[in-house]
Amino acid sequence: MAGVDEQRLPFFIQVKPEDEHITNESHSAARVLGHGNAWDGWVFAQGVTKNDQGVVLQGVQDGFLKVEPKLLQGRNLVYHVKAGELSTVRWQINWHDSSGELLRVLSTYRTFSHTNAVISKKVVVPEGAAVGYIYITGHGPLKHPVLFNKVEVQ
Predict the structure, then answer these.
(1) In the predicted structure, residue 19 carries a pLDDT above the cut 80
(2) Which of 12, 67, 76, 91 sits at a 20 to 30 Å CA gap from 19?
(3) What is the CATH number of the domain that holds 75?
(4) Residue 78 lies in a domain
(5) Does any domain span residue 93?
(6) Confidence band for 101, pLDDT divided at 50, 70 and 90
């Protein structure tokens, strides 16, 4: 939903089960990291399929994208997903230092079915992080396919 506040600044509301997220950033300020058939730079597990609507992951298949910390610091990493059957999606970033050592894993998951869902979390980059790996994947024992329509930074 979109609107204009008292200062005439545009704002957008994403309604999610866990909270409401309000931002003064317009959608044009978002940086799309992958959508439809366009997933440049992503590395996917064998058997992952892409189509005009996005990437289809089955079970715990995954994909990842290497990013610089400054791309994400203080911004929201947003997954747009769709599932026909009961499915669980994991939102995840692995942070590594300049020597390649794992510093921290940020992750959360959401279970949903028969709907489109938006998973959006604000990113705080840990001190010493030189690179991050954004993962898109299922989570847990559920084996139903999930369509990742888009991943973006807002």
Answers:
(1) no
(2) 67
(3) 2.60.120.260
(4) yes
(5) yes
(6) very high
Phi/psi at 9 (5° precision): -95, 135
Number of neighbouring beta carbons within 10 Å of residue 53: 14
Determine, yes or no, domain membership for 107. yes
pTM for the predicted model, two decimal places = 0.77
Positive/negative CA dihedral, 23, 123, 109, 83: positive
